[in-house]
Amino acid sequence: MLAYAGMRSDDAVLSLVNSRLQRDIRENDDDLSAQSEERKTHMMRRLLLSLAVAMAPLMSAAHSKSEAMVPAQGATVSEVPELYMRFDDPMRIISVTLSSADGGVDLQRATGMEPTKEFRAMPVEALAPGIYRFDWRGMASDGHPMQGSVTFTVVD
Question: I want to staple 87 with a disulfide (CB 3.0 to 4.6 A). Which of 18, 38, 91, 123 is the partner?
């Protein structure tokens, strides 16, 4: 992907698309003034479609994604010394809960509230055998709220 010095690659693509659109508009401005409104509308639609096509890859990659979760979804484990998540882009984890049929489980966060690619929290006490659900909520670096959960089983 293109990148100008000091710019993120998605900023560089937007800058390139914007400069090309402005150039096309300038070059065609004289021609457009002589054309009918229908022709102007057609050209604007083409420009907007070009912009949408150029933006599609950026929009699909806008949100952070969970790359790893320990314990994994559906895992059966004998102990859980920590709950671990890894993201492809920094995530501010706002809320985490661990619960079982017996109620909530106290967690100690090893990771603060700053955006991070890796999050860790430890159960305050060893987990008894049973089925547990770990829920989390966060804010992606692009400002979108994110959330997820994983269910796992602890056995003797």
Answer: 91
Q: How far is CA 130 from the centre of its chain?
A: 31
List of long-range contacts for 123-126, beta carbons under 8 Å, 24+ apart: 123/80, 123/83, 123/98, 126/79
CA 71-75-78 angle, to 5 degrees, is 80
DSSP 8-state symbol, 61:
T
Q: What is the secondary structure of 84-149 as a DSSP string?
A: EEEEEEEEEEEEEEEEETTEEE-EEESS-SS-EEEEEEEESSPPPSEEEEEEEEEEETTS-EEEEE
Q: Answer yes or no: is pLDDT of 73 > 90.
A: yes
122/20 Cα distance (integer angstroms)? 52
Residues 80-129 have pLDDT tens digits of 999 999 999 999 999 999 999 999 999 999 988 999 999 999 999 999 99
**pLDDT class of 37 with cuts at 50, 70, 90:** confident
